[in-house]
Specification:
The complex is a heterodimer of chains A (about 280) and B (about 160).
Chain A lengths: L1 H5 L4 E7 L2 E7 L2 H8 L7 E2 L7 E6 L12 E5 L2 E6 L2 H19 L4 E10 L2 E6 L6 H10 L3 E4 L2 E4 L5 E2 L5 E4 L5 E4 L15 E6 L11 E3 L1 H9 L9 H12 L3 E4 L5 H25 L1
Chain B lengths: L1 H7 L8 E5 L2 E6 L4 E5 L1 H9 L6 H12 L5 H13 L7 H6 L5 H12 L7 E5 L27 E2 L2 E2 L1
Antiparallel strand pairs in B: 1-2, 2-3, 3-4, 5-6
Classes of the chains: A alpha+beta (about 280), B alpha+beta (about 160).
Chain lengths: ~280, ~160
């Protein structure tokens, strides 16, 4: 660490996100500006010099004729990656920061799920990697939903969902990863915390059709719990928050076919759910 | 012999973290990292299995709560379901009862009489390690179920 500290750092940032202090230092101001765009929505600058995790990022600036320089990312004293590709460093920084926050945040419960807003309510789609969450999220946004997250849905202690903006990533036909920002799909980035109205337990099945069945809310909690990084280490907290979150939600389960068709049906379902809840409120 | 064992048997639930969600309860078993969702009937029987009440007493209490349709078969099915899910502690009587015909066959017998209210349902899931709940694993994390993040390689089950 001392060796790293001795390097010339041009820019530093101390920040607070999800109740955790994080430090970032880079060897150029421009690189720090680029990194700022990749930070979680709720981050705030912090005056604290004590941080739980310190990222040191060396960008390949000062390229000379015939030489190539590495981009290097450290988390505390651990070198995470050394590569010629600068976007790999940024992507890995974003991933590592997400995992660190998910495993250590005391203020938010992270669930590996996509989330979109519609009619002041949120639909949450938990699922393992490569089950088609990003594709479905893309189609939901194209159909007019507000983007909350594609990687982690963030729950507060009341069970409301907060935004966690990350680029949507897909594999193209040649198997290469491509990334899209939600703004490119036309989503606004000003999403507020909202309660859940729908939990969708689904995965892509080629040539399948979306014919979900309504299952119990308890099944919805199990579906979310299976995708909660701290479920094993803090099960009491995770169960308490997820139970509150799902208390008024409808839970749908079933495999799906094409994302576009499924997205439209999910939004239609959310429309009918909001009608039911508004009539319930009137009668109360 | 079996009847004597049944009369004396006092089922005892395993310890777990419990959350109530309307009619259902959710139980997390730290020993096995398994989460269970119990419907109303299963939850009620499970709560009564405190190690002090005999099966007869549980049956009587269940009859008070769910009506006269509760019988020995319902209760044995509930105990078997809970035992198979790992929600009751080991016991010779439960081992014996759980060797009975499969649940589906049992349900065919009791469902027409009891209705769905008295069918015990337990859904269980094994909660995975933290790494499984992410799109990609970072340096040093396991990559058995989740791929490694960009530029990292999966070597001997870890991202390097």
């Amino acid at each position: 660490m001392a060796k790293l500290d001795r390097l010339g750092w041009a820019a530093e940032l101390s920040m607070r996100a999800c109740g955790l202090n994080i430090g970032i230092r880079t060897n150029s101001e421009e690189l720090l500006d680029t990194i700022r765009l990749r930070l979680p929505v709720e981050w705030r600058p912090s005056a604290s010099s004590v941080v739980g995790r310190l990222y040191s990022i060396i960008g390949a600036t000062d390229q000379r004729m015939g030489t190539r320089r590495f981009n290097i990312l450290y988390a505390n004293s651990l070198q995470i990656v050394r590569t010629f590709n600068s976007s790999d460093v940024l992507n890995l920084f974003e991933s590592d920061l997400g995992i660190y926050l998910a495993e250590n945040s005391s203020q938010r419960l992270f669930v590996h799920a996509a989330a979109v807003g519609w009619n002041n309510r949120v639909a949450v789609i938990p699922g393992r990697s490569q089950t088609g969450k990003s594709m479905l999220t893309r189609e939901l946004i194209r159909a007019g939903a507000t983007y909350y997250s594609d990687e982690y849905a963030l729950f507060d202690r009341h069970g409301w969902v907060h935004p966690f903006h990350r680029p949507l990533s897909f594999l193209n036909q040649s198997g290469r990863e491509i990334q899209l920002r939600a703004q490119q799909l036309g989503s606004s980035m000003t999403a507020n915390a909202r309660p859940i109205s729908l939990v969708v337990l689904t995965h892509f099945k080629p040539a399948g059709h979306w014919k979900p069945s309504i299952v119990s809310r308890g099944s919805g909690v199990l579906g979310l719990l299976c995708n909660t990084p701290i479920a094993r280490t803090h099960p009491k907290k995770a169960l308490a928050i997820l139970t509150k979150a799902v208390a008024r939600a409808t839970v749908l389960r079933g495999s799906r076919g094409e994302a576009r068709e499924t997205a439209k049906m999910i939004l239609r379902k959310m429309d009918s759910e909001s009608l039911i809840s508004s009539s319930r409120l009137q009668s109360e | 012999m079996k009847e004597i064992a049944r009369k004396q048997f006092r089922p005892k639930r395993v310890d777990g973290i419990v959350e109530q969600l309307l009619d259902e309860i959710l139980v997390y078993d730290r020993a096995t990292n398994t989460a269970h969702c119990l419907n109303r009937f299963a939850a009620s029987v499970w709560r009564m299995c405190d190690g002090t009440q005999t099966v007869h007493e549980i049956e009587a209490h269940a009859r008070q709560e769910f009506g006269a349709n509760v019988n020995r078969q319902n209760l044995e099915l509930a105990l078997t379901t809970l035992y198979r899910a790992g929600l009751l502690q080991e016991d010779a009587f439960l081992l014996e009862v759980s060797k009975k015909p499969p649940r589906r066959q049992f349900l065919k017998q009791i469902a027409p009489l009891a209705g769905t209210l008295l069918i015990p349902c337990v859904a269980s899931v094994l909660v995975p390690e933290a790494e499984a709940a992410a799109s990609c694993s970072s340096l040093g994390q396991a990559c058995n179920t989740t791929p490694c993040c960009a530029t990292l390689t999966c070597l001997l089950g870890r991202c390097v």
